[in-house]
Design brief:
431 residues; Jelly Rolls; eight-stranded antiparallel beta sheet; seven-stranded antiparallel beta sheet; 23% strand; elongated
C-alpha cells in the first residue's frame, strides 16, 4: 500500500511537470548546444544543406545562407524529419548584414514536401507548395517587414502577378545591420497561431492551423546587391512528448476557414469526454508489471486531462484578453471624447474671454471718442466766441458811419460852391 501511495505521488508530480514543461525536438533543432558542425564534415545532423550557384558556408556557430558577395545567390537548409506535433514553438536566430542599398529575403517554411517542392526558392519564385511561408525582407522600400503566406497546394505562386496580396499577416521590423542576431518565434497552440520578433508580437490569428507531418526549412535569396543572411540556431519545442499526437491531423489540408467558436462551457465538455480511468482496488495488481501498466495508463489519462484543462484555460484567457481589449478600446474612445469635450470647453472659455475683452475695448474707445468730442465742442465754442468779439469790436458803429458819409458829402458840396464863385469873380479875357 505504501509503495502504491509513493507511485501515485510520483505520478501526480510527473503529470504536473509534463503539463508545464517544453520538450526539445532534437531532430528538428540545431545551434542550441553552441556548435553546428560537430564533426567538422560540413554537415548538420538531421538537415540537408543546398545552394545555387554555391553551397552555404557552415561555420562552428552559424550557417551563412547567402554571402555578402557576390550577389544572385540562393541557400537552403531543410529538416529531414517532419514535425509530428500540432502544438509547438520554433525559435530562429538570424542576422542580416549588407551595404546601404543591399537587399534579399529570408524565408522560414513549414511545408508538406518542403525540400522537394520548394528547394532553395523564395516566396517570389516558388511554385505550388502546401504549408506556411514566413518572409523577412524590405518589401515596398520599407526598412523591413515580416509577412506570413499560406498555400493549400493549389496556388502557383511563381505565376501570381501580385504575391503580396496573398499575405495573411504582417508587421514592420528593421532587421538589417543591427550588429546582433534577431530572434523570430513561431508558436502554434490548439487555439491560435502567432509570430513574435524579439519578444514582441508581430501578428496572431485563430483562423489557421498547420497539421502535423510538415517539414521545417530556411531559404535565402539575394539580388545583384546582396545581404548576407546568417542563421545561428533553430530550436523546435513542444509541450507533448508523444510524437504524432494527433494522427488524424496529418491527413488534413491547411484550414483557411474560420474555426467554429466553442461554447462557453466547451472546456468542461472536454474534461467530461476524456477517458477517466475508474478506481481499482490495490489487491487487483499482483505483479510489478501490472502496477507499472496501471501507473502508465493513469499518467496518460492525467496528461490528457491536464491538456484539456490547459486548452480550457487558453480559451478563457483568450476570451478575457478579447474582453480586456474591447474595454481598453471603449476607454480610449471615452478618453478621446472627453479630451474633445475638454478642448471645446476651453475654446468656448477663450471665446468668452475674447468677447469680454472686445466689449471692454469697444466701451473704452467709445468713452475716449465721447471725451474727445466734448473737448472739441468746448474748444470750437470758445474760439467762436473770441472771434465774434474781435470782429464786433473792430467794426465802427452806424452813427459814426452816417456822420462820416454826410460830412464827406457836405465838404464836397462846399468845395464845389467855392469853386464856382471863384470862377465867376475872375476877370474875363478877350481875344
Amino acid at each position: 500500500m505504501r509503495a502504491i501511495g509513493v507511485l501515485a505521488t510520483l505520478a501526480a508530480l510527473l503529470a504536473g511537470n509534463l503539463a508545464q514543461a517544453q520538450w526539445l525536438i532534437n531532430e528538428l533543432s540545431f545551434g542550441h548546444s553552441g556548435r553546428l558542425d560537430h564533426d567538422g564534415h560540413g554537415k548538420i545532423p538531421g538537415f540537408t544543406i543546398s545552394g545555387q550557384p554555391h553551397q552555404p558556408e557552415l561555420l562552428s556557430n552559424k550557417i551563412i545562407l547567402t554571402p555578402v558577395a557576390p550577389g544572385n545567390q540562393r541557400g537552403a537548409i531543410w529538416a529531414e524529419s517532419p514535425l509530428a506535433r500540432t502544438a509547438w514553438t520554433a525559435d530562429v536566430d538570424f542576422r542580416a548584414n549588407g551595404p546601404e542599398r543591399g537587399s534579399g529575403n529570408l524565408n522560414i517554411w513549414l511545408a508538406h514536401r518542403g525540400n522537394h517542392d520548394i528547394g532553395s526558392n523564395s516566396i517570389y519564385t516558388v511554385g505550388k507548395f502546401e504549408g506556411l511561408g514566413l518572409v523577412i525582407d524590405t518589401h515596398g522600400g520599407s526598412p523591413g517587414m515580416i509577412r506570413g503566406f499560406l498555400n493549400d497546394g493549389t496556388t502557383d505562386y511563381v505565376h501570381q502577378h501580385n504575391v503580396d496580396k496573398l499575405a495573411f499577416g504582417h508587421c514592420y521590423y528593421q532587421y538589417r545591420n543591427l550588429g546582433r542576431p534577431s530572434q523570430i518565434k513561431l508558436r502554434q497552440t490548439h487555439t491560435s497561431f502567432r509570430v513574435e520578433i524579439d519578444g514582441t508580437l508581430c501578428f496572431e490569428t485563430d483562423k489557421i492551423s498547420i497539421p502535423a507531418g510538415y517539414h521545417f526549412g530556411l531559404t535565402a535569396a539575394t539580388p545583384d546587391t546582396p545581404d548576407s543572411f546568417e542563421v545561428f540556431k533553430m530550436v523546435v519545442m513542444s509541450e507533448s512528448t508523444v510524437s504524432g499526437e494527433d494522427h488524424h491531423d496529418r491527413q488534413q489540408k491547411i484550414n483557411y476557414e474560420t474555426r467554429q467558436t466553442r461554447p462557453q462551457g466547451g472546456g468542461h465538455d472536454d474534461l467530461e469526454g476524456s477517458n477517466i480511468m475508474p478506481d481499482q482496488p490495490a489487491e487487483m495488481y499482483k505483479t510489478s508489471s501490472a502496477q507499472f501498466q496501471d501507473l502508465h495508463e493513469r499518467l496518460q489519462s492525467a496528461t490528457h486531462l491536464l491538456n484539456a484543462v490547459h486548452r480550457t484555460n487558453l480559451q478563457h484567457k483568450k476570451k478575457s484578453d478579447d474582453d480586456q481589449a474591447d474595454i481598453k478600446h471603449a476607454l480610449d474612445q471615452l478618453r478621446e471624447q472627453l479630451s474633445h469635450s475638454s478642448r471645446n470647453d476651453d475654446l468656448q472659455h477663450r471665446i468668452r474671454e475674447l468677447e469680454s475683452e472686445v466689449r471692454s475695448l469697444r466701451d473704452e474707445i467709445h468713452n475716449k471718442l465721447s471725451s474727445h468730442q466734448d473737448d472739441l465742442h468746448r474748444y470750437l465754442g470758445q474760439h467762436h466766441t473770441l472771434l465774434s468779439h474781435t470782429v464786433t469790436s473792430s467794426i465802427p458803429g452806424h452813427g459814426k458811419l452816417i456822420f462820416i458819409i454826410v460830412g464827406t458829402q457836405a465838404l464836397l458840396v462846399t468845395a464845389y460852391v467855392l469853386y464856382k464863385r471863384r470862377r465867376a469873380n475872375s476877370p474875363k479875357k478877350y481875344l
